[in-house]
Amino acid sequence: KLRLRYLHRYLATEYLSKQTASLTDKVSNYEAAARMTVDGKDVPYRQLPALMANEPSQERRAALYLAAGPVLDSLNSLLLQVRERDRRSVGELGYSSYTEMAEQLKGFSLSALKGTAEQVLLETQDQYMMLLREILHKELRLTPERFYRYDTAPLFRSRGYDRYFPEAAMLPTLKSTYRGLGIELDSLRAL
User: Fold this and answer.
1) Which residues are CB-contacts of 64 (< 8 A; sequence separation ≥ 6)?
2) pLDDT tens digits along 124-176
3) pTM listed for this prediction
4) 139 vs 57: CA distance, rounded Å
């Protein structure tokens, strides 16, 4: 019975993937080609996370985040098409919702999991806020009240570790790592 459920889950997810393949390709292609204007310069959208992670100024991070707005609007429009196609495909498989399908194919209740997750969040909220306040002060000199979505990338960037990764050693280290795998990067013409 368990093997049959695994097979059913595999077939259902493959079906959904096939139904949305052209749309997800469209999303990927759009992301790869999307560009935004930052300080009058044309910048690839996919560079945004690196730009934000390396930007020390919160004001500038906010500007970068806002510059991505038009790209995100278009991207969200495409993602809504994927979601709608997924919703229709789930119905074609005989389920009333994606949640129902996931619960039946995975064999557990997402509603119960939601309740458990909410309880964990409630029980750890005070400790989370204490640790967040501490790390925000240490890494970004911010308080939780002044912490925004665009501050997440530099928070996890952890500049304190930069000294262990000197810029001059990055390329030689990469080449050495690949050489250890039997790949000579200098011999590859496409790089």
Assistant:
1) 38, 48, 51, 52, 55, 150
2) 999 999 999 999 999 999 999 999 999 999 999 888 888 999 999 999 999 99
3) 0.77
4) 12
